[in-house]
Amino acid sequence: MAKVKKEVKILMIEDDLTLCDLVGSFLEKKGYVFYQHNTFEGAIDRVKQVRPDLIIMDLHFPDGNGLHLCKTLKDDKDYNKIPILVLTGRDYPVEKEVAMKSGVTDFFHKPMVYSKLTEKIDEILGESIKLTFWGVRGSVPCPGAKYAEFGGNSTCLQVKIPGQKKMLIIDAGTGLRVLGDEVDKSVENCEGRIFLTHAHWDHIQGFPFFKPLYKEGNKFQVHMPQQISGSTKEVLVDQMSYTYSPITSHMFKADLEYLTQTRGLQRYDGYSVEHITANHPVETAIYKFEIGKRSFVFAPDNELSTKDESSSKGKSYAYLKQFDSFVSGVDVLIHDSQFDYEEYQHKQRWGHSAWEIVVERSIKNGVKHLILTHFGPDLVDDDLFRIEEEAQEMARGTDTHVELAREGKVFRFPA
Ligand SMILES: [Zn+2]
Ligand SMILES: [Zn+2]
Question: Tell me: domain 128-414, CATH 3.10.20.30, correct?
């Protein structure tokens, strides 16, 4: 466990007194300052009195529903930054979804394994790498009620590295606009790098709408592998020519550098990055980032086909071997799940994957955490809830944990 650097206060709201005492004595031994409260009633007052760094709680109390507590805290700007970890014996995705919307940060599943509990606390409070999805759609943005839960913006991922102020952004789909608005509100000046996998619209359309580009003093480097025609600058600036957009790139005020991402390991601000070429119609990067001992791979557009597997000569076979060795043992794989297997049957060689094949291959490669993303427009919320359940069922009993990306969701993993 990472060292607890300052006094960290944990408040446990739980009606099972024995459990509270056990957790309390364990956490106190680990150096945390532990408080408990055992009823629904008075819990909010207790939070205000203790002002904990973390709340651990149950959702079911004899005198009330824990979700109401979460909601009350979420709506209070003085307390909505306190992370809430829910202890639960149940594993229902829909219930989880409702709880996350009510302000729950994460879940810890019973039975209690105490070493895992401190790992989870470290993950929430400690030095964790944060992956925030600002867009999870492939092909085209999908507004509307059917997409409200998982989100309709196209691909954009932000990576936050502990102690690193410079931004790290991957892909500039329409999700980048939302990230830009957030940054514009919260910091005076910013700098960072934007890595683009390729120049298909769903990966660059948010670029002209990224507010920090219009502010003097900001500084960005934009990386992309060489495309069929045009440099990184030409590709991005051409989509803003006057025919297409009233706002042209001449209006950018930030200091911008456009770079062609070359092969091999490159080291930047607290991380290193390398890439291979995806199985996709144009030159598309699959990036692997290494941050200290941790690594993650971002492959939003990549077709993993099962074809040619039996033949040791086929092109697809050679590609799969290269992919396998690139992702083998990574902490997190974020991968294209544009289709389900049925839709994929009609769309083979389009350059996208069926989620079933991705899950299967990730299990085979020992990927610890698989995050499915880049959902096609045909996959609405109801489909994605079902896919998440089925994918988790497929991975049950293996070393691979599967989740679906959601717009606005932050995935943390220890640095
Ligand atoms: Zn795409
Ligand atoms: Zn593409």
Answer: no
Instruction: Judge whether 9-125 and 128-414 match in fold.
Output: no
Q: Where are the domains of the chain?
A: 9-125, 128-414
Dihedral (Cα; 329, 337, 205, 175), 10-degree rounding = -70
Q: What is the chain's pLDDT, residue by residue, as a tens digit (415 residues)?
A: 444 345 789 999 999 999 999 999 999 988 889 999 999 999 999 999 999 989 999 888 898 888 899 999 888 877 877 899 998 877 776 777 788 888 888 888 877 778 788 878 877 886 789 899 999 999 999 999 999 999 999 999 999 998 888 999 999 999 999 999 999 887 889 999 999 999 999 999 999 999 999 999 999 999 999 999 899 999 999 999 999 999 999 999 999 999 999 999 999 988 999 999 999 999 999 999 999 989 999 999 999 987 555 555 567 778 899 999 999 989 999 999 999 999 999 999 899 999 999 999 999 999 999 999 999 999 999 999 999 999 999 999 999 999 999 998 888 887 7
CA of 258 to the centre of ligand 2 (A): 20
Instruction: Check: CB of residue 211 under 8 Å from CB of residue 185.
Output: no
Q: How far is the CA of 300 from the centre of ligand 1 (A)?
A: 6
Among residues 4, 76, 62, which one has the least CA distance to residue 34?
4
CA diameter of the chain = 69
d(CA 3, ligand 2 centre) in Å = 43
Q: Which of 288, 287, 292 is nearest to 415 (CA)?
A: 292
Q: How many angstroms separate the alpha carbon of residue 202 from the centre of ligand 2?
A: 7
Q: Can you name the CATH fold of 9-125?
A: Rossmann fold (3.40.50)
Q: Which ligand places an atom closest to the C-alpha of 278?
A: 2
**Separation of CA 30 from chain center:** 29
